[in-house]
Write a structure and sequence with these properties.
Length: 217
């Protein structure tokens, strides 16, 4: 089979309900191309999803910006290839406000994120540490995101120190088909407000919007 020439790939358009500028769309296309180029040497995403990179990863992550457009100071936990945190940071570049702290302890993936930031002008920086270590040096955070990282119980535990510093913080977690069971499993441990945003690109998946997080007494 002849290898795909990714330089000839043209990304699908972005749906109107997300609505970003042409400049932002071009930045996202540059980012997607970088993921493809680095994938051959670093396992940034599951290889079987590479042909559907734009829809499966970029647009799925871009939904978060559609849900919260106002600039904020974010922490993206376990950023990996940058979904959704780097996508948010690329969208913030045009506004010139807000920031995303990308927490990624894998040095090779951190190196990829730095190059992607440089090439796209994303409003982001990389913290090459574990999430628990990030909490000691992170400035006040207004929002936290994570995608395909860990069970909800672990995500809430990682987020708790930041919620204690800023009770108004919002958590945004992409979750798959078993999200309802994950939510049920943590209700005995945590109290929180929850909004479920159905994914427009992944059947059965959601973005969980969580606020007022507190440990259950």
């Amino acid at each position: 089979m002849k290898p795909v020439d990714w330089s000839e790939v043209r990304e699908p358009t972005i749906p109107e309900f997300i609505s970003v500028s042409r400049e932002t769309e071009e930045r996202l296309a540059i980012y997607a191309d970088l993921v493809r180029k680095w994938q051959s040497s670093i396992n940034l995403i599951s290889p079987k999803t590479l042909p559907d990179l734009w829809t499966r990863h970029v647009l799925d992550s871009l939904q978060l910006f559609a849900l919260r457009r106002e600039p904020a100071v974010w922490m993206d936990m376990g950023s990996g290839a940058g979904f959704p945190g780097l996508v948010t940071a690329i969208c913030l570049a045009e506004a010139g406000e807000g920031w995303v702290h990308l927490v990624e302890s894998n040095n090779k993936k951190a190196a990829f994120l730095r190059q992607a930031i440089s090439r796209t002008g994303a409003r982001a920086s990389v913290m090459p540490v574990r999430i628990d270590a990030a909490a000691r040096n992170m400035p006040e955070i207004e929002a936290i995101s994570a995608r395909a990282l860990a069970p909800l119980a672990d995500l809430l535990s990682h987020s708790a120190p930041f919620a204690e510093k800023n009770p108004a913080i919002q958590l945004w977690f992409h979750k798959g088909l078993d999200y309802a069971e994950e939510v049920r499993s943590v209700r005995d441990l945590w109290v929180f407000d929850l909004v479920e945003h159905k994914s427009q690109f992944q059947d059965g998946s959601v973005i969980l919007q969580i606020g007022n997080l507190k440990k259950f007494n």
